[in-house]
Design a protein that fits this description.
mainly alpha, Serine Threonine Protein Phosphatase 5, Tetratricopeptide repeat, 5 helices, 70% helix
């Protein structure tokens, strides 16, 4: 019973830590700090290669023409890893990504982002 509890708590802690690091990565990406954002997303992927938020964040880092990591082939790679696991995005991740796009949208619009 202790092993099951330990495994459950470990999984919960890792999920929480990954969500916080992904949030940090999107905040850094919003500030155009590509190096730090890439490091934050890479840290999440070191624990979970299939993490959808981190793969999406790295796809954004590699697809921005202003990024020193601009490489569309690499961005495509992260998108291809993301595609089969996109439904595993947590509600918290969706809110973070929505906030990122709301804060970086450049076109003036009277419609809300949702």
């Amino acid at each position: 019973m202790r092993k099951i509890t330990f495994i459950f708590l470990s999984f919960f802690f890792l999920s929480y830590a990954a969500a916080q690091t992904s949030k940090k990565g999107f905040k850094l990406l919003e500030k155009l700090e590509y190096e730090k954002a890439k490091s934050a997303f890479d840290e999440v992927l070191s624990a979970d290669q299939q993490n959808p938020a981190a793969n999406f964040g790295l796809a954004l880092v590699h697809s921005d023409e202003n990024s020193p990591y601009y490489n569309l082939i690499q961005a495509w790679h992260y998108c291809s890893v993301l595609q089969p696991v996109v439904e595993k995005l947590l509600q918290e991740d969706l809110e973070i990504i929505g906030e990122y796009f709301m804060n970086t949208e450049k076109r003036p619009s009277t419609r809300p982002v949702k």
